[in-house]
Amino acid sequence: MANKNPISENNGLVLTIKEHFLNFLINCSNNLGCVSAK
């Protein structure tokens, strides 16, 4: 990552957050105990 590109890093971070959020939603829909686990 010698090339500093804030926009690229930002997009990567947003994609990572979206991925985690989607995984969280999928886990919740597959796991009825997701609310109590929070």
Which geometry do the CA atoms define? rod-shaped
| Class inferred from helices and paired strands | mainly alpha
Percent in helix: over 70%
Strand fraction: under 5%
Supply Rg.
Answer: 15 Å
User: How do the SSEs run, as a string of H and E?
Assistant: HH
Distance from first to last alpha carbon: 35 Å
Largest sheet data? none
User: Segments where pLDDT lies below 50 for 5+ residues?
Assistant: none
| Mean pLDDT over the residues | 73
Number of strands: 0
How would you describe what is shown here?
The protein has helices at 6-30, 34-37. It is mainly α and 38 residues long.
Describe the structure concisely for a colleague.
The chain has 38 residues and is mainly α. It has helices spanning 6-30, 34-37.
Give the secondary structure arrangement, pairings included.
Layout: H1 6-30, H2 34-37
Key features?
38 residues, mainly alpha, 2 helices, 0% strand, rod-shaped
